Amino acid sequence: MSRLVSFDDAREKARRRMPRFAFDFIDGGAGTETGLGRNRAAFINRILEPRALINVDGDLSTRTRFLGKSWAAPYGVAPVGLAGLAWPGIDRFLARAAEQAGVPYCASTPSTAKLEDLHDCAPNSGWFQLYVGSSQEIVDDLIERARIAGYDTLIVTADVPRPGKRRRDLRNQFALPLKITPRFIWELASHPKWSLGVLRHGAPRFANLERYAEPGASTTSLASLMAKQSSGRLDWDLLADIRSKWPGKLILKGILSPQDAQRATSEGVDAIVVSNHGGRQLDGAPATLDALGPIRDAVGPDFPLIVDGGIRSGEDVLKALMAGADFVLMGRAFLYSVAALGQDGAAEAFTMLQTELTNAMAQTGVRDIVDISK
Ligand SMILES: Cc1cc2nc3c(=O)[nH]c(=O)nc-3n(C[C@H](O)[C@H](O)[C@H](O)COP(=O)(O)O)c2cc1C
User: Fold this and answer.
1) N or C, which terminus of the chain has less Cβ within 10 Å?
2) Residue-range domain boundaries for the chain
3) What is the C-alpha separation between 238 and 168, in angstroms, rounded?
4) Contacts of 91 by beta carbon, 8 Å cutoff, 6+ apart
5) 46 C-beta neighbours (distance < 10 Å), count
6) Distance from the CA of 69 to the center of ligand 1, in angstroms?
7) Quick one: DSSP state of residue 78?
8) Which residues does residue 368 pair with via DSSP β-bridges, in sequence order?
9) For 137, how many CA atoms within 13 A lie in the half-sphere containing its CB?
């Protein structure tokens, strides 16, 4: 019997089980957080048309082909940096659960487990997300490491030319290394399961970047190394350079303008993620669901499009597909589930999502997910 009722319930439980600074880091967005709210509002306000008298008895199919592979469902785990703050060990839990569920798992440059270890957890479904930081040497090395580890898909994130200004983090004075203040000690003492998890799995760290720091480097210098992983130097020339170095599928993440999307199609990009980084970068950015339609029109019906931002249920997945996406990614929903339920929350999230999606398909007369037209 699943203990997960909804991702909204999981969020409330996660809020109680996580230290305040950690929950705010995961949950928060840029500026006034109206952009964050806009992502959700767009899904809430989108209406699905119920259809009746269509025989939807028996199993409905959510299987889909995307970027040359067959997936059990058209959703996957978005790349999340410092996910270990949500729940210690979470990167591996989610990678294994996604592999088990037959859907993509995106390891991130600032993930709290090594990209090589995460590929071992998700050998068939792992994608690797790259930040183009200020050091070209590190960028080239990360690309090479991803190839050697066996990843076949690289996601280049394009929407972090500067770190986002997140007011909750500033108010909490959230920075790495975590400062040992009386309030911090109180937060650890009042969230014992989270703190015990840290004892078992170690404090969240930039596992992929440690090798680029001086031997014995402090967390502070690692944090500054991470800060340099967001840089404003990514442009079309640099993207072409990455394209020439990466033999596998290349996904460009963080596109919101139809012009940018159209250009990407002629630069050898295999897919685009219509994304505003979960409302964490530009408060005034459009809701991703609203940006999706004009981008679909710009790139044509066949170009592979992914959308993320504010997806919190199987119905939302269906809404995204009906609005023109081929695939969706979800970030916070999976973080809340594991923070609420621990390791079991990873598998339970996929089970619940699948039930919600097929239920919504039945209500709207969709027997097979591939029949949804763009
Ligand atoms: C805590 C957190 C960390 C994130 N870190 C990254 C990252 O390292 N790389 C990246 O491309 N996107 C990152 N994202 C953005 C997600 O990949 C995704 O675009 C976003 O979470 C989607 O919105 P949702 O959380 O509402 O599903 C992060 C998001 C969150 C919430």
Assistant:
1) N
2) 7-366
3) 33
4) 83, 84, 107, 111, 112, 113, 118
5) 17
6) 24
7) P
8) 61
9) 5
**Spatial CB neighbours of 224, under 8 Å, sequence gap ≥ 6:** none
Token pair, residue 366, equals 């969709």
Q: Is 275 annotated as a binding residue?
A: yes
Ligand 1 is surrounded, with C-beta below 6 A, by: 26, 39, 78-81, 108, 110, 129, 157, 253, 275, 277-278, 280, 308-311, 330-333
Task: Answer yes or no: is 61 a known binding residue.
Answer: no
Q: Are 262 and 281 in contact (CB under 8 A)?
A: no
Single-letter amino acid, residue 11: R
| DSSP output for 174-217 | --SSPP--HHHHHHHHT-HHHHHHHHHH-S---TTTGGGSPTT-
Each residue's pLDDT, cut to its tens digit, for the chain (374 residues) gives 778 999 999 999 999 999 999 999 999 999 999 999 999 999 999 999 999 999 999 999 999 999 999 999 999 999 999 999 999 999 999 999 999 999 999 999 999 999 999 999 999 999 999 999 989 999 999 999 999 999 999 999 999 999 999 999 999 988 877 778 888 899 999 999 999 999 888 888 899 998 998 777 776 677 777 777 778 899 999 999 999 999 999 999 999 999 999 999 999 999 999 999 999 999 999 999 999 999 999 999 999 999 999 999 999 999 999 999 999 999 999 999 999 999 999 999 999 999 999 999 999 999 999 999 76
* CATH 3.40.50.10380 correct for 7-366: no
Q: Known binder of ligand: residue 105?
A: no
User: Which amino acid is present at 312?
Assistant: R
Residue 244 burial (C-beta neighbours within 10 Å; 0-12, 13-18, 19+): exposed
Nearest to 328 by CA among 141, 106, 151: 106
Q: Which residue has the tokens 């089980």?
A: 17
Query: What is the Cα gyration radius of the chain?
Result: 20
Q: Is 277 a catalytic residue?
A: yes
- Say which amino acid occupies 38: R
Token pair listed for 317? 């997945």
